[in-house]
Design goal:
The chain is built from four helices and no strands. By secondary structure, the protein is mainly alpha-helical. The structure holds heme C (HEC) (2 copies). One heme C binds next to helix 4.
Length: about 90
């Protein structure tokens, strides 16, 4: 089988995708949701079977960007929707 230009392009794309994948996976160090008095009830709710989507909006009673500030480079709220906090911040075990 002769390897032509298109084959090399294909190999290149795969290598690129893999490289990006590895680069991102190494960076999984987003802070965990602490296991303390402020956050205990959310850990319990998830354990009781509530979905992350049901729990997410409750974070903003404290983490509203006023009482507790987000870091400057924090991902912003998409158009009035509650942020999917637990999508990024995993629960500490
Ligand atoms: C009762 C108030 C309150 C609620 C509700 C709350 N938090 Fe927090 N959270 C705090 C406080 C206080 C801190 C620590 C203060 C700070 O980091 O400035 C904190 C810190 C954090 C941190 C940073 C931890 C670290 O290691 O620095 C994360 C992540 C976090 N909260 C996620 C969440 C998520 C997700 C929810 C919703 C499921 C939530 N919090 C709901 C009060 C709250
Ligand atoms: C798209 C992903 C994403 C979403 C959604 C998200 N965060 Fe974050 N958050 C991050 C990243 C990335 C950082 C900065 C890295 C870090 O310190 O964890 C951060 C940092 C924080 C910190 C500061 C941690 C510290 O002390 O340095 C808090 C508190 C926090 N987030 C709370 C929340 C809460 C509450 C919500 C929901 C209202 C939320 N985040 C939604 C990605 C996200």
């Amino acid at each position: 089988m002769k390897i032509d230009k298109r084959d090399w392009l294909f190999v290149g794309v795969i290598v690129l995708v893999l490289a990006v994948f590895i680069a991102i996976s190494g960076k999984e160090k987003t802070k965990l949701v602490p296991l303390n008095a402020d956050h205990q009830k959310f850990h319990d709710m998830i354990k009781e079977g509530k979905t992350k989507k049901e729990v997410d909006p409750l974070c903003e009673s404290c983490h509203d960007g006023v009482k507790i500030l987000f870091p400057k480079d924090h991902p912003i709220k998409p158009g009035g929707q509650p942020m999917r906090c637990l999508f990024c911040h995993k629960l500490k075990r």
